[in-house]
Write the structure tokens for this entry.
Amino acid sequence: MTYNQQYFQKTELAIKNKYYKCYLSPILVKNNFKHGFFTKTSSEIKLSLLSKHLNKGSRDCVLNQVHSNKIVLGSKTPANARAEADGLFNDKNNQNLWIYTADCMPILFADKRKRCVAAIHCGRRGLEIKIIKNLIKIFYKKGCSKEDLLVAIGPSISQKNYLIDNKTLQNFYKKTSQKELITCSEGERILLNMRKENLIPLNLKKYAYVQLLNENIPNSNIDISNLCTYQSNYEFYSWRRSKTLLRQWSFISPS
């Protein structure tokens, strides 16, 4: 198993003499999918205006995210109300799928052959209740092939900044039915943290990566951002850092 984080390409969107930064996944760029992982500046502008400059004429699909494993179709997100779910799957070509996050992972999916896309909001709870597995089942039911499915895990909290108690960690292992993925150096750090603070770091991106591999997604089809929302105060909101209710947007579109 090869787990590597990487740099995502930084770009800017100019709207009314202001610049809004976002990051792009190399594998999604290579396969010509419109997408972006925005920074905190995205909260300063109306989503409709942001969307207009990204993909004019497309319909915005947005959820009321509740840390569930529910996935809904883009057409099931009415303009005057938000469906309670944490994943979106496009069923029309003119849809922008939007996810908002602070420390949780925005994960974008795209089938390079069928050109269908999806987006999920996934934190520790999402990993425990297997939202990734639920979404990939939908792709496979649509006739997608594992070789064609691309995944980009966007900016989210890093392992060293996501600390939980031992009871929470053991409950996580139990619910995810996964073995502990701890290297020697990580193990030494965990023991040190347990002695000092009784808190243990958990690598959410790594466990999302493992769940993707368990669903037969090739390692070469997975991009993982090395950006940490907790550390990058200038660029990202972080619930763990400041208990803010503000979020940054991420999106993907099939067209």
